[in-house]
Amino acid sequence: MQRELVARAIDGDHEAFTTLVDGSVDRLYAVARLILRDSDRAEDAVQEALVSAWRDLRSLREPGAWDAWLYRLTVWACYRQARKDRRRAVVELNVMPDPAREPSADLALRIVERDRLDRQLGLLPIDQRAVIVLHFYLGRPINEAAGILGIPIGTAKSRLNRGLQAMRDAMADEPEAIHRSARERTA
Fold first, then answer.
1. 106 and 44: one domain?
2. Range(s) of the domain holding residue 32
């Protein structure tokens, strides 16, 4: 079905392209959001990727490669957004828990761990972040992630390894008091 829609879109069918985009836009936004760490810039990157997809659709030789091609365009658009806006200020909000609505201990610990991972992912360079997002969040094999990024597989493996090691090191350096405090609040 998708190959058929891609073939029709390549021939200039706007409706087929719209159907393809409707089926992909949420996933593209999720990827861009994880890479860029900003909703507005992620939306801009996805829009840029979709405009590029329509403009360059005839260059897609294999209709079965639609998803990988669209991910590649999105990641490249994310790279351009990141280069364009490197000096953008980041504002971090600290939310105080409401004692009347304390979550269960298990849920609170999962949230703390997810937050730690999210923060550490956001601190990585964009090239490492992109490989991690494609491989772990989208479940793409490392060779497919390398293809989407247009880099050699060895480079993708190296970026993945360096990114994961940086996250491990940073998380190991965090004081245990943070985790103990979270466990105590939920106990």
1. no
2. 2-84
